[in-house]
Structures are given as structure tokens and as C-alpha cells.
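Quick one - inputs below.
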Amino acid sequence: MIKVENLHKTFGKDVKALNGLSFTANDGEITGILGPNGAGKTTCLRTLYGLLKADSGVATIDGISAVDNPIAARAQLGIFPDKFGLYERLTAYEQIDYFASIHGLSGSHKKQAIEEVLADLEMEDLAHRKTQGFSQGQRMKVTLAQALVHKPKNFVLDEPTRGLDVMSTRILRDYLARFKAQGHCILFSSHVMQEVAALCDRVVIVANGKLAAQGTPEELCQLAGESQLEEAFVKLIGSDEGVAA
Amino acid sequence: MSLGFSQLKALVIKEFKEAFRDKRALMTAFSMSLLAPVMIMVMSKTMIKEMVEKPTVYAEFVGVEYAPKLMEDFRDDNILPLSEAEGDSHAIWEKRGIKITIPETYAEDMVDGNIINIVLNADYSDKPSLAPIRRVKDVIRDHARAIGYKRLIMRGVDVRILRPLNLVEQDRAQPSSNAMMISMMLGLYLLMGAFMSGLATAIDSSAGERERNVLEMLLCQPISTLKVVLAKLTCTSAISMLSIVLMLTVTSISVGFVDLTKIGATFSIDAFTFTVLLVLLLPICIFAGALQLFFAFQAKSFKEAQSTVTMLIMLPAFVPIALIFLDNRPLWLDWIPVAGQSIIMEDLFKGLPIDWAALAVTSVVTIAMSAALVMGLAKKLKSEKVVMALS
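Output:
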């Protein structure tokens, strides 16, 4: 379970990135974070990873504070970051192995975990190729595999479908649905409304660094009196700004 | 195996895999080691040639006809009249303008026993003229002395009367100190090698990873930044060290092909020298790696890292040269990185006994400074500034 309470974060003197943001992502649910560019999504997620320190407020992962004990909190997380690069001189297998070792897996247990994740993502044929020259979809798979190889209880994805084709998006979606069924907590930020509507159990809308609305996609539509999530989103954040971007 | 150690092991293995698959960085690292002996051989061959041979000197002579015997001596020493020079060398020596004037009255004065003024006119501040001027002076002095001795002997005087004192010089320097220039070059080269070889790897694993967007992912993992820095440092310094071993091996083989005995010098890298040099340079490799990582991690881009870190290479080149000009070295210089090692290396090449205490102190200081850099960098990597620079 990921819990964010009253997070405040100011950059420089007057750039308020987070202004009292609170929400909860429950186990066994996919929670989507929606928000225009610059709403504070990435800042919020980076606070969860323990990379940024909030000025005030609490961010906990399974009850462990990401501020006070970032290393223990990160151990409970699988992270698909905003910008995912690959070690291009390593093979996909070596890369997944590397992250598995960092998460404390070793020996036959590690080997088995890697084999499983490779099979789950249908990437056995990619495994022993160097990742240089991989397509966007293949890169996504490697990043996903390295984030999930240790089977984290909580999983955070920052705009994972950027630049993916339909096939890769489907693989990702199926995989997330399976994780959810196993009772994992998934937090998911995105700009693609259809995807959020199709995938998420609950949606958290963030604007100007605070919570604008939350609920199931249907509830949000009702709240705004619109039939489409996109229209509801624009209405709820109170402007058209950022949507086109 | 504890989690902490297995994490570090995974980090180190990954760094090595990446470094050894980066052909460009490896080439930079090892090309320097392979070029070292070539440079040293070329330099020492030129040096030997200069010291052993007497290149022709052309001078403008006035009144050659008055002193044929003196002219013979000049000719024996390969000092010839400018008129005999051809082509380029004529232009060069004409510009240098070394002019020797023998007076018309030479023969008369010689017979009468008067002092004869031979005028040597030249630019004494012109460096290339210095050796020729010295040779001209030597020829004239020797010629005059020979005549003087003959005059005394003819008068039945023992020439020893002219030498009431005799200076017996005892040079305590070991034979190998004559090869000082060569060993100084080698020392400088080794220090440069320690600094340069890990450079490409250091930049690639820090600023390079940031630019390839893999640093953020790594910083989000449940590992301390100290381990990240240590793994990168291990790899960078291992590559420098490997490059130094290669450089020493190839150099010790290749100096065998240069006949240094011609200039009365012996120079060889025996097992002892080899080991001491390695012990001496290991902390330097670590220090260089730490310094490079420290600056490369703070650069905003690969390019910026390259230009900042390249400046660091000036350090090993600058310190030993500065040391030459310091007549009274302060004691603390023996302890600080680069200077301390450079001083011990100088003693080692001179064949002087090694100051083990100084070696230990300078090694400890160097490693302590590296540790401070590592801790500082690990702390910096936790700061928000670094994270903000990620995007």
C-alpha cells in the first residue's frame, strides 16, 4: 500500500510543485494518477522513491517512510521511471540479473526469478542480446522485467506507455492486470485517458500540486457530469491548460 | 554472503562488464601504455646521439690565414668556416652569427710571446649557440695551454708547476643517475598514465550514465550511494592499474634495446623497482579515479565532464615540474598525493635508498584523501540538486 499525506514541496523560492497532495493506492488495485504537465506527478513519485525530500508531509510504502528510511522503502518498490535508459553494453539478461542482485536475490532463486519474468513478458528470444538497438517496445519490456524481477509488493510506473505500439501496450496492460489479481499495489501515471479508463480501478487527479478529485473513472465522470473521462478531467482540473501538451 | 556485500559485488561486476565492452575507453587507456616505451626509446636515442656525437659547427672566421695550426685544431673538433656550409645549414649558422677574429699580428705576437687577443663574437643568450660557443672556447683554451706547456718545457720548467692543486672529484651518484632525464620522463609518464587511463571509464560510468538515463533508475534502488561510488571507483582504478602494469612491462622490455652505456648510464626496471613503483602508484590510481568521478558526476553533460576532467590531467604533469624549480622543498610536500610519489620515484630512479616511512605516509594521505572524495560524492549523489539535474 502506498500512502501520501499532505505533501508539500517548493523548488527555489516560489515554484510550488506539491501543495498538500494526499492519496492512497490500495493493494489489489490499480491506481492511476492523472494530471496536466507540471502538475507535480513526477515530483510526487520521486518523493516516493526517496530521491526528493518533501518540505512537509508523509509518504509511506507498506508503512515504511520514504523520507526517513528510503532504502528500506525502495526495497518494497518496483520502479518504472520517468526516463528509462538501458545499459546498452549489457544483454537484457545481464541487466535483469543486475537488478535482481541489487534486490538481494542470489543463486538458483535468482535464476528462477529471472526465467519467470522473461517467460511472463515473452522475451526469451531477446534475453541474450545486447540492448543496444532495441526497439521502444523491447526497451519497455527490459525495464519492466528489471523492475519486477524481485516481485515487489508495490509497483510504480511513470508514464509507461509513452511511445509504445498497440501490441506492447497490450502486453503491459495484461501484465499489470495479472499483478493486480495477485494482490499487488500498482500506481500508474499517464496522459492517455482511454488507458486510464480501461485499466485503473481508481483515479487520482492532480492539479497544481494538490488533489483535484479522486474515485473510479465512472464516479469522476458523474462528478463532472460528463460521459467521457477526458471531458471530466478537463472540467475537474478547471482549465484546458496542459491537455494539449 | 550478506546482502550488503552481494549488492556491492553485483555493482562491481556490472561496472567491469561495461568497461571492458567499451572498446573506445579501453583503447584510450591502453594506447597510452603502449606508446610510453616508444616515446622513451625515441627520446633516449636522440639524447644519446646529442651527447656522443659532435655535430658540425660553422663559424665566421676572419684571418684564417694567420693561424693555420689553430685552424687545424678547430677542424679536428668539427668547427668549420661558414663558407663551407651548404644550403639550409648555411642560413641557420649565418643567422646564429658566431664570429671568430684572429688578428693580423698573430704570427708576430706568437714569436714575441705577446698576449694575442682572439675575439669571439656571438649572442650568448641564444640557447642553441651555447654548446657551439663552449666548444669554440674549449678549442682555444686547449690550444693555448698546449703552446704554454711547450714554452715551459723548452725553458726546462716542469709543467706541474702550473698545477699546485689538483682536484680529485669523487661522484657519489650511482651510475644510473646519469639517466636522470629518461627516468624523470618515465616517472612523469607513469603519473600521467595513472591519471589518464581511467579517465574515459570514469566519465562514461558517471556523466555517461546520467546522459543515457540509467542513473535515475539506479538511484531509485535500495542501495546506498556509497556502494554505487565504490563500485565505479573500483573499476576505474583497476583499469588505471592494469594500464600501469602494462606500461611498466613494455617499458622494461624496450629499454633493453637502447644502448645507454654509450652515455655511461645504466637503466633497467628490475623486479624490485617494478614492485615499488606499483606500490607507489596504486594509491595514485585510486586517488585519480576518485577525483575524476567526483568532478564527472557533477558535470551536467558528457561533454562538460570531458572538458572538466581533462583539466585534472594537468595535475600530475604540473607537480613534478614545479618540484624541479623548488630548491628548498617544504617537508609537507613529501606527504601530499602526486608530489610525495614523485619525490620517492625520483629517489628510486637515482638509485638512492627508499624512504619507506615517507612512502607509507604519502600512501595513507593519498588514500585518506580519496576516501574523503568518495564520501563527499556519495553524499552529493543523495542531494536533490543531483536528482533535479537528471531531467
